[in-house]
Amino acid sequence: MGCRDLYGYPLTTSRQAAEAYRDGVGDLLRLRAGAAGRIASSVALDPTFAIGHATLALLGHEMCVQVDIESRLVDARLHAGRATERERSHVHAVQRHLQGDSLPLVAHVAAYPLDAVLLSVAMPTIAFAGVTEVPEQAWNIVEQAAPAYGDDPWINGLLAFVRQEQRRFDDAMDLACRSLLVEPSGGHAAHARAHAHYETGDHAAGLAWMDDWVVGEGAATDSITHFAWHAALHELSLGDLDAVRRRYETQLQPRHAVGCRALVDTGSLLFRWALTPDGVDAPAMDEVVALTGRHVLEEPATAFLGMHSAVALLAVGDDAGLERLGAWSARNPNPTHREVLAPLAGALRLLTRGRWSEGADRLAELTPHCWRLGGSDAQRELVEETRIAALLRAGRYDEARALLDARLDRRPAVRDRRWRESALRSGSEDLVAAHVDLDLAER
Q: CB within 10 Å: which end of the chain, N or C, has fewer?
């Protein structure tokens, strides 16, 4: 029998390259460290391995892995002719996806459901931004592919993430725990469980489990900063800012993050920390911005990254950077960049200039469309929290309290309760500024 991937599809390459690729994909699916390096080894061992080149290009685009994306695509196209029909379809799907057209990828997964790499790409998760702006479409892609896998721990972890997106939290927890029982280090299952704890307000139990997992079975996870971010969200929700600082200093220092994680995890934590009542001593965002680089900040590959770029630029008071992000997004062929990210950058520019009320109104207009930015509800809360802070700075306390009441109805949180109490007490701009400080650049 010739070389095959983890789920049985043939690989047109040498035995040694196939082993490296399988190991790399196994790490990628489990979110373990070293996936990109092992996949790079596969093309070093066999420079004609088309699917290896395509997967590396994909990781460069989606996860900010330092590879020459265009060169990898060129090599993938060059050598795809000698590969199987499935591999040629994989290469074509990746190429079109990176050009902004994900329809071939969706069709590929329908034809080859056991192509786990591209099925991963289709679903917005910790690793990838997804291929559709409509969550139900992404869920359907996973649901339709799942029967081909049987009771596989990886697919159960991915389905668990789908279930928590559907707000079926009991089902999500059951699937995640079933997956983790078989594969305790499985990153997707752990990620789904983390979201289920957070979205149900199960902060103490979620924090205790995550603390154990990140230093135990999950210690080899490539995206460990994201799990640390989840733990920090619980600590923020519990109002324990001393714990948040310890988490930042030990697990979320931006210089230790991989790829875009300094922006997505550390950056978003610092922003939300600074908005928290009594969070005025949160560290500045400058190191995150420096490590991320202007290209990612002002020309982000995905709208999801762009949302994080926008709040980071707001945090350092970079009006010009927000202007460039907005202008670039407005010219982007992707409609989400044009219709959601560009207006978001414009709304945050208003805040950099102290136009709190107008900025809050712009953010309110964007609220029904923020789901198009991708990521999870927990991540997109950045926009909601920015709006709450802007309303408070504008002295529009009743509207801010209404938003906080809605959040507390969704799940209990000491932080939101204290935030609401500060809004009730607020009768002067000085008090609001002490509690909700969007002037992060002055720190």
A: N
Cα separation, 443 vs 25, whole angstroms: 43
Please state, in angstroms and rounded to a whole number, the distance separating the CA atoms of residues 25 and 18.
10
* 114: pLDDT strictly greater than 80: yes
The per-residue pLDDT for range 240-292, each reduced to its tens digit, is 999 999 999 999 999 888 778 899 999 999 999 999 988 888 999 999 999 99
Percent of residues in the chain assigned helix, strand, coil, to nearest 5: 70, 0, 25
- The amino acid present at 422, given as its one-letter code, is S
**Residue 207 near residue 192, CB atoms below 8 Å:** no
Who's near 114: CB < 8 A, 6+ residues apart?
A: 7, 8, 9, 145, 148, 149
User: What CA dihedral angle connects 63, 69, 75 and 79, to 10 degrees?
Assistant: 40
Distance separating alpha carbons of residues 254 and 267, to the nearest angstrom: 8
CA 117 to chain centre: 17
Q: Which ranges in 116-240 belong to alpha helices (H)? A: 116-122, 135-145, 153-165, 169-182, 187-199, 203-215, 224-237
Tell me: the pLDDT tens digits for 384-413? 999 999 999 999 999 999 999 999 999 999
DSSP state of 170: H
User: What size, in residues, is the chain?
Assistant: 443
Tokens of 203: 């902060």
388 by Cβ neighbours in 10 Å (0-12 / 13-18 / 19+) ranks as buried
Query: What are the b/e assignments for 335-360, b being 16+ CB within 10 Å?
Result: ebbebbbbbbbbbbbbbbeebbeebb
- Residue-range domain boundaries for the chain: 15-125, 150-222, 225-442
| Segment (H or E) for 282 | none
Q: What is the mean pLDDT of residues 151-177?
A: 96
Q: Would you say 140 and 147 are in contact if contact means Cβ atoms under 8 Å apart? A: no
Question: Measured at the alpha carbon of residue 203, what is the angle toward residues 413 and 224, in degrees to the nearest 5?
Answer: 120
- Collapse the DSSP code of 32 into the 3-class scheme (helix H, G, I; strand E, B; otherwise coil) and give the result: strand
Q: Which residues pair with 221 in a beta bridge?
A: 32
Asked if residue 67 lies in contact with residue 41, where contact means CB atoms within 8 angstroms, the answer is: no
Nearest residue to 288 (alpha-carbon basis) of 274, 306, 307, 269: 269
d(CA 309, CA 306): 5
Is domain 150-222 classified as CATH 1.25.40?
Answer: yes
- Cα distances (Å, whole numbers) of residue 258 to 12, 35, 117, 250: 31, 12, 20, 15
CB 155 within 8 A of CB 122: no
- For residues 1-17, b (16+ Cβ closer than 10 Å) or e, as one string? eebebbbebbbbbeeeb
> What is the Cα–Cα distance from 443 to 429, expressed in whole angstroms?
19
Q: Please report the pLDDT score of residue 129 as a whole number.
A: 67
